[in-house]
Amino acid sequence: MKMHGLGNDFVVIDQRGGEAMVTPALARALGDRHRGVGFDQLAVIETTPEADARLTFYNSDGSTAAACGNATRCVARHLMAESGRPSLTLLTERGQLQAADAGDGLTSVNMGPPQLDWAAIPLARAMETLTLPIDGAPSAVGMGNPHCVFFVADAESVDLARDGAAMEHHPLFPQATNVEYVQVRGPGELRMRVWERGTGITLACGSGACAAAVAAHRRGLADAHVRIELDGGWLELDWRADGVWMTGPTAHVLTGVLTPEFLAAV
User: Fold this and answer.
1) Vertex 184, ends 5 and 39: CA angle to 5°?
2) What is the structure's pLDDT at 65?
3) Are residues 155 and 215 in the same domain?
4) Could you say which DSSP state residue 224 is in?
5) How confident is the model at residue 36 (pLDDT cuts 50, 70, 90)?
6) What would the pLDDT profile of 78-112 be if each residue is shown by its tens digit?
7) pTM higher than 0.85 for the full model?
8) How many domains does the chain fold into?
């Protein structure tokens, strides 16, 4: 399937009941927007006794990601439509994530509590994560994957291709990092642009939006419940006692079959 959340686009492969077929090489081939299908992330659905389904994520460079919020919402919407259920649980490397129909075509997922300790994110050495010793004094937040959140006066003026790429492999982030540039419009509204680890510029990033909401609230810049405008549209974030809930739209674009010729060339 091809799906997207706010233009953050995914290929979703349903492996329930079938043989495992996804490899890093296949992920890279599928991620090629000229010779494959093209995606920001690849999500693989598998069966598990621990939840309604298990999700594994790949970036377009073939590396894996422990979390992908918008892809989780897309798959949750698909599985809820398939089963007729209003809620379900998905198992990811991040743990068990609750998902629910939020009405009006919107889907919510609890992305879990943020990781705020330096070792959990992880960072290269012990330090306070609210303000990092980097130009621009960003915050570090883990949402199952690492995030470096910069607060800027004007998100539109950020050179994402230059600054995001330069920060992705900063020495403080031994596993590399997603990079968010966040403009505070008010206590209930943020504007965010993002460079995703292993992918590059994307129109939206669900885990990044969670990280931005957490960092803004920790700094006293925004409420725990905020709306965030990304390049592809709006998400609603609510940092509660049980985790960071993210709500937004999803789209199922098509369902297709990979040809034997394509698979043989991988």
Assistant:
1) 20
2) 87
3) yes
4) S
5) very high
6) 999 999 999 999 999 989 999 999 999 999 999 99
7) yes
8) 2
Pinpoint the alpha helices (H) of the chain. Answer: 24-31, 69-83, 160-168, 206-218, 260-265
Buried b (16+ CB within 10 A) or exposed e, 215-245: bbbbeeebeeebbbbbbbeebbbbbeeebbb
- Assess whether 178 and 82 both reside in one domain: no
Structure tokens at 238: 């609510």
210 is catalytic: no
196 and 146 together in one domain: yes
State which residues form the domain around 159. 139-241
Q: Is 68 an annotated catalytic residue? A: yes
Domain CATH code at residue 82: 3.10.310.10
The CA distance from 142 to 121, in Å, is: 5
Residues 48 and 75 both lie in one domain: yes
Q: Which residues contact 70 (CB under 8 A, 6 or more apart)?
A: 4, 5, 6, 8, 10, 204, 205, 206, 248, 250
Q: Which of 68, 74, 148, 210 is labelled catalytic?
A: 68
- Over the stretch 217-264, which tens digit does the pLDDT of each residue have? 999 999 999 999 999 999 999 999 999 999 999 999 999 999 999 999
97, part of any domain: yes
Same domain, 23 and 69: yes
Identify the active-site residue in 74, 148, 205, 210: 205
